[in-house]
Structure formats: structure tokens, C-alpha cells
Amino acid sequence: MGKLTNIFKDTAIYGLSSIIGRFLNYLLVPLYTAQLSAASGGYGIITNIYAYVALVLVVLTFGMETTYFRFTNKTHTDSQTVYGTTLISVGTVSLLFAVLVLLLLSPISQLMGYADHPDYVGVMAVTVAIDAFLCIPFAHLRQQKKAIKFAALKLLNIAVSILLNLIYFYFMDGKDVGYAFYINLVCTVMLAVCLLTEYTGFRWKLDTKLLRTMLSYSWPILVLGIAGILNQTADKMLFPYIYQDGDMLEQLGIYGACSKIAMIMAMITQAFRFAYEPIVFAGVKDKDQHEMYAKAMKYFIIFTLLAFLLVVGYMDILKRIVVPNQDYWVGLKVVPIVMAAEIMMGVYFNLSFWYKVIDKTIWGAVFSGLGCAVLLLVNIIFVPRYGYIACAWGGFAGYGVAMLISYFVGQKYYPINYPLKDISFYVVLAFILYGFMRAANDWPTLASLAFNTLLVVVFAGVIIRRDLPLASLPVIGKYFKKK
Questions:
Q1: Which residues, other chains included, contact 125 with Cβ-Cβ below 8 Å and sequence gap of 6+?
Q2: What is the pTM of this model?
Q3: What is the DSSP string of 418-452?
Q4: By the number of CB atoms within 10 A of the CB, which of 20, 30, 214, 240 ranks highest?
Q5: Please, how many CA atoms are within 13 Å of residue 81, restricted to the half-sphere of its CB?
Q6: Which residues contact 438 (CB under 8 A, 6 or more apart)?
Q7: CA 370, 374, 377 angle in degrees (round to 5)?
Q8: Can you give the C-alpha Rg of the chain in angstroms?
Q9: In 3D, which of 280, 336, 278 has the Cα closest to residue 308?
Q10: How far apart are CA 34 and CA 180, in angstroms?
């Protein structure tokens, strides 16, 4: 239970910063949607370009974050050499990417549909190149267990971004969507300066032999990452090409804005990953590792289901906070679907450690590739007819396929005794409560919120009674230990 307690402790720090950060970022959604109407397509442009940014970021880091953790904890490698080699390799690739895009800015912008605004593409290319490089210093902070510094810098970046966006879009009543991208670049440069201490204290040396070994480990993770990020962003990139009506950017903006409500699942998964990944690789040879995997999976599913019910139960409040412009509310039907897909993505991430710890990352590429293929197929076939609702179901189907195949193959090569009976109990209970919430959401607001609150309390009460290890939690645990 000791390692599991450490996960809870670090997840609290990473999770708090992640949740606060994402919540603060939510403030940008009502800001953008208030200033940029759905019909203008402004938020559709933001949704589309940031989808490309997410994909490029994965390509430019090419699996080296996870590879850095793995090789830092190998007994025959020097951690400083691993760090220096990782920094130089990712930095070089990122620099070449930025230069190439700027040299070919006109044709690339035209291909993406931004021939009239090539500056959008150029600014974001430079921004994502710097972001990719900064992923390694941030990974170093996680590896060094510097969770507070990690969280502080992330929150500072978000706070400055919000401040600058407020100044332009609210106080100056700005309407040019390009300023969202310019502000992003300013904040990224600021973050790079704040991380100056992470560029010193070691020898900047590229160990080519080590790099070849690291690349043999990382390339399947790259394929896995590309497939994984396509599961999240391919619909937003493909939509302008396969949706046939003239209101393409308007519909994409509605889908992108409403999907933001569901991103609480991405917050939880990301926070869990930041704390979980370094601990997993540091204890690869521990005998109790299998038990920790099983328990971590169980608690992850329990609390993501609780988050799911909270979002559905308080949808009437959340929609007014995140997307106050009622023009966008027609897309709220995608929220439960996207949240369910995010839960399966989190489960798939937790399942992925079996092939990472035995250095068989090629399996991850296979699973994610199959999931991505399903997503693309659903989008290509159904988006022209059903619009963005097909995007949501495509993500659901893609993650579902990847999750199930990873589980069954993993049980053959690295069997873990997951508590499937307990997990199934919570899934069925959450589904039943969700059905009641859907019906209650048609009631008057106060009655609906009161009833949904009761259902959330019921679910939380079941968790506390059956599975919450209160005695093992930091700080408050001492009050629950048996005398």
C-alpha cells in the first residue's frame, strides 16, 4: 500500500495543478465563445489548429518522455547522459521542424485551409516546437519528484495566458482569433525562460550509441502516441474535409466547445499519469508490482466514474460556466459520449504498462493503430451524414477497441489479476445512476440538481463504505486508523 499511497500523494499535487489549470483554461472557452459567435467560425479555427498542434507535439517528442523515464532507471546508464541526449535529440528535431514550416509556410497554410492567414500556422509551428523541447525539462522535474515546481510553472503559464487573453478579448473587445495564437507563443517563451535552471548541472553531450538504443525503444511509443492523439484529434482535423455543408467551422466550433466540458476526464488521466509513470518504472522488479497495478486500475475507474456522474448531474451549471453562449448548447449531447471515451482512454493508458515494463512497446503501436483505424472509419462513413455526433461516437469506438484488445493480449503476456468483479459493480451502478440523471435533467433546474446531488452522494457513499482506504491517505489517514 506504500507505493499506492505515494501515487495518491503525488496525484494530489499534479491533479490539483492540473484541475485548477484546466479550470482556469475553461475561462478561455466562455471568453472565446462570447467574443467569437458560433456562426463566425472563430472557435472552429481554434479547435482545428490546436488539433494539429497536439499531433505535432507527439511527433516532435517521438516517445522520448517515456523513454527518458525507462532509461534513467536502468542500472547500467548514467542519468545525466540520458537527460542530455534526450534534450539534444528532441531540441534538434523541434528546431528543424520550425525552420521547415517557416520555409514552406505558404503551401502548408494553403493545404490546411488558411491561405489568407499563414501567420496562424507560422506562429503555432514555432510555439509547438518550443513546447516539444520543454516537455523534457518537465519530465526531468517529474523524475526528480519536484512536483511542486512542476505544478507552479504550469499554473504560472496558464495564469499569464488568461490575463493576456482577458486584456485583448475582453477589455479591448478584440475579435481577431489570431491573437489567441500570439498569446500562446508569448507564454511558451516565458516558460522556457523559467526553466533555465533545468538546462544546467549536467554535460550537454549527445551519446549516439545510447540514442540508437533509446530510439529502438521509443519508436513504437511514437507510433502509439500518434495513433493515440489521432484518437483525440483526428475528427477535428478531418471534419473540414469530410463535412459537406457550408457551416463547417460553425459546427466544428460547437463540437469543440461542448467537448471541453468532458475534459475533466483528461485532467484526471493526465494527473494520474504524471504521478504513476515514474513510480512504475522505478519499481519494475518489485514483487508487489502486479498488485499495485490492479489496485491503481480499480481506484482510477472508481473515481473517473464519480467524475462522470458529477459532470452529468451538474450539466445545467457547467454549461453556463464553460459555454455560456446558448448558440453552442445544441452540442451538449456529445458530452457523455466524449467522457465515456475518455474513461476508456484512461483505462487503456493504465493497461499499457504491461508492454512498457517488458520493453515490448510495439504492442502499443498495434493496439492504438487498430483503435485509430476504427475512429477514422466511423468518421469518414458517418460524419457526412450525421455531423459532429459521429465524431464523438468515433472516439468512443476507437478507445473501446484499443482498451479491450490491450486487456486480452496483456493477460496472455503479462497477466494481472484485476478486480473485475468490483470494477463491474461500479460500472453497472454508475450506468444505472446515469439513466436516472438523464431523466431528471428534464425536470425544473432546482429539482434536477437536488435529485442528482442525492445520486452522487449515494455513489460516493458506496465508494467510502466498500473501497476507500481512508487510513492509508496522507495527513487525514491517522484519524481513520483503527486503535
A1: 56, 97, 98, 101, 102
A2: 0.77
A3: --HHHHHHHHHHHHHHHHHHHHHTTS-HHHHHHHH
A4: 214
A5: 13
A6: 312
A7: 135
A8: 22
A9: 336
A10: 14
